[in-house]
Structure formats: structure tokens, C-alpha cells
Amino acid sequence: MLNNNFLPGYLSQTENYEELPTESDVVIIGGGLLGTALSYYLAKSGVEVTLLERNDLNREASGTNAGSFHFQIALHQLTDNMTQADDKRLVDETKLMLDAAKLWDEIETELNADLGVHFTGGFMVAETQEELQVLRDKQRIESAAGLETQVMTGNEMRDFAPYLAPDLSGIAFCPREGHANPLLVGPTYAYRAHELGSKIRTNCEVTRIEQITGIPGYRFKIHTNRGTILCNRVVNASGAWTTELSSQLGLNLPMGLSGLHVNVTEPREYFLKSMVQHIGRRLTLKQTTNNTFIIGGGWPSREEKFPLRYSNFWESAAGNAAVAVRVLPMLKDVQLVRVWSGVWAYTNDFKPILGESEKIPGYHIAMVPTGFTLGPMVSRMLAEYMTQPGSTNLIPKEFHVDR
């Protein structure tokens, strides 16, 4: 099994700084979770792959998120007046989450590494009767999709989770939810991809993607700060930078950006095995194996001129902490010791952008708003699409690049 202490040494190896290859079948732009996972799955299928990352691997959203598995239906997926079509959409989306859960079941065996994967269950809490009804409505849909969730109220809720605020209107518990260590997953994929022959170049910023003709077997010239590389296929897995690079080829993607907070507390005696989310307010909460609490949930960071990193916004840290204390009162005397921000890229419909553009043959995009939960699964899906000619049905139509 791969020793996690070995990863920092690997990530600083001079191999990452060797000369850029002059050519490659596939060039992946972006060294986050999607890019590294895709590099692994393609290399495993015998594809010649080169991965380019402008900074260090796993530095942006893939390494700055809370590492949670979000399988339950979230508030942003619901509409005010649910129709049968909405129900079907949510059933399909939940089944996709179940596919992701199955891959997380297998990932440590697949990569022969300890990635901190734990299925400890997850709560979705409600404070009002209206929110409780949402929990019940979504439970019906989740059950139809095959995802186990249980709604509890009153004494049943208090007996099951006595540490939660006793006046909550109800909770939904999903035993499949959990978490992994976001600092390990992407780098481990990269290491295993490297073992399979994938070339990884960090501190290699792509400045231009050029379509070319006249060179058999190659459709693109990738310009970087370290030279150029020819390739037949390119995958844009650059997260927040996906739109910037795609616009060079005339693609206008329905994407937006936001900076999000994550907070860490001092340690306390371990008691919270399950992740906690809120159906109506911004909250994700879990306790780590070193007894600290990680508090997140989508609170905004201070906006700065793109592409600078988002800075901390203390009003968000305070607001996030207040919701956490409301749900878990025993946190009221626990101090925050660290706050950081990451860049979140999302689509207008909160669905992935995945696959090959029909407008630009050979140009692929891998962009997922819920990138940590779905990242490994959609990367494997895209790898299968790219290695199986005619396999257009592998990727749902609602994910298509040109939708």
C-alpha cells in the first residue's frame, strides 16, 4: 500500500520539471482531482497522456474543499412547484450519486492507498416545519432512486443524535455519506498515473490552445510558458479557468465562479461520527480523526480580481460558525483556529460539463460543480468515452459540452 508520507516527496520530484514532451495523444489541462483521475484512467487503458498544471497539483478547489461526500438531494436541486419531470430528473441525479458512492467504495483498493475514506453517514437537518416537509419530499425521491435515507423527528431524533439541537424539527440520515482526505486523493491518482506512463508537468501554464491542420495525427498545438506540445485530443479540466481557455476556441460556457470558506476549530473529544448538513441554510460540519471540526457550507469569500486567490471574509466565518452552533450547541465555546478559501466553479444548472465538443472535434471538457463527490466517477466515465469509439451514450445528454 502506498505510504502517504511518500506523496510530498513525489510531488516535488524533478520529473515534474523535465522538458515538455513535443507531442502526446491526449493533453489534460489541470492538475486537480478531475485531471489527475482522468490521467490515471486513460493511462490505465494504454492512452498516451500528458498532464499540465500551472501551479502545483491539487492546489485549487480539489485540495481546499472539506472532502465531503454529498449524496442526499440538496436544496438547490429542488424547485418551488415540483412536477413529475422534476421527480424523474432528481431520481436520475440521485442514481448518479449512487454510482459515485460505489466508486468511493472501491477507490482505496483500486489505488492501493489509504485516502481517509470513511462512510460514517450524514445528517440533513431542518429547523422549521416547511424544511421538514422538504426532507420528507426528498426522501420519497431518494427511495425511488435506491438511496437509503431515514427521516426522524421528536424523541426518535433526539435519541439517535442527542448532540444535535433538541428543538430541530427533524433530520434525514443517510448511511452512505461520509468523507475522504482531499489532500491525498488527487495526488495519489497522479502518482499512480505516473507509474502507468502518464507524463505530469507542474508549473506549466497553458497560455493558448491553437487548432491546427496539416500535421497528420494532431489537431491542436498547446502553447505554455515552457514551450509547445502537439496533441490529437485535449481535455480542459482547469476548473475555474475552464471558460477562459474555452473562449479562445469560441466556446461560451454557462459557468460562474465563487470563492468559498472552510473553517477549522481546535480539537475536542471525539463524538461526531457523521457529517451534518442543513436543508435550508449553508452548513456542512464534520469532526476529523484528530478531533477538530471542519465547518463549511458555501459561505462566500471576499471577491478579488480574477485570477487571484479569494481571501477570507470574516463576516462569512462568523455566519458559518453561528449556524454550526445553532445545530450543534456544544460548539459554542470551541475556537476557530484556521480559515481558508477555495475557488468554486459552477454551471448555471449545477450540472457537469463533460465530453467532447461537436463544434470542435477533439476538444473535451471535464467540469463538475460537485467536483469532489463526483470527480472520480465522471473522470472514469470520460475515460471510457474517450477509449471506446462510438460510446456517445456513456455521458448523459444534459452534461454535453454544447448543450
TrEMBL record:
Keywords: Oxidoreductase. Pfam families: DAO. The lineage of its organism: unclassified sequences, metagenomes, ecological metagenomes. GO terms for molecular function: oxidoreductase activity. It comes from freshwater metagenome. Residues 25-384 form the FAD dependent oxidoreductase domain. GO terms for cellular component: cytoplasm. This is Unannotated protein.
